[in-house]
Structure prediction request, 339 residues.
Amino acid sequence: MTNKFLYWYYILRNRAQIHGKRNFKSFCFFIMNAGLILFFIGAFALVAGTVIYKTVDSSSWIEFTKHLKLGASEGVANYVIYRNLTLGIAGFIGISLAAWRSHSLGRQAYVAEQGHITERFIKATEQLGNEQVFIRIGAIHTLWRVAKDSRSEGDKKMILDMLCAFVRGSKPVRRLDTVEDYEYETIQNDVKIAIKLITQEISEIEMLSAYKTDFSGAFLQGADLRKAHLFEANLTNTNLSTANLEAAIMQHANLTNARLSFANVDGAGLQHTNLRNANFEFADIKTTKFSHANFWCTTLDNASFSQKTFHKVWLTKRLCKSINIKNHQWIKEGDDTPF
Prediction:
């Protein structure tokens, strides 16, 4: 129900923004053309009035016709000048009408394109709730195609929000390991595809720096997030156990209460991240960059790290003692005070 409300909210908001911008552009285009037409008409009237005033006796129509036929002292007939001015104004009006027609056709094409995109979006969104996995996978690829085809940043953000909500709301499936003979929970295939598109292929829709991923509370156990773009991502309460986060971009992300036990975080960038109450038990963090991260109440038991792992990181004495770090230069006094 929440996803449906979110979907219709974004549809209505996006349409309002589109029509508002289009109406404003049309109004500006109309004002510009009307102003130019009035300017040329005024210029013509001014020139004609000046010539008539200086060279013709306004009380004599015969003298005026002679003036048109004989022309000015420069040797160019005045009627030629008037004719050229008239043709120039007529030509400008014709060009303005053609430009207006072209603008109207472009607007109609844009509205038709938006209508087609909306229809594809509605159909794909409905298919996301289908019980068949292959139909959901098709819906995910359709949404991504719509995001690539659309020129609106609002459309792209709406689709990314829908895919993130799909990932957060998905439940794990239980699989049987026939070799070890035990059951384990894992991510469904459609969720894996959505995660890959959001975190590794977001540059295709030109939203790399404009979108902040929200996977809060999602089940991402064992997810393949190598070189994933999770800059300023919301990963609070996210289950990232056994996930592969090698070389992931996670600066300024929020990992409060996140579970990263047995995860491979080697080479990832977690500078300025919030790791409050995060669990890194048995995680590989040997070359992870943690500078200026918040390690308040973070669990690092049995994690694999090096001396350079906590470079420029404030640690409490209690945490240093629990992971057997000696002579650490950045010691935070007081074990119960957040950084």
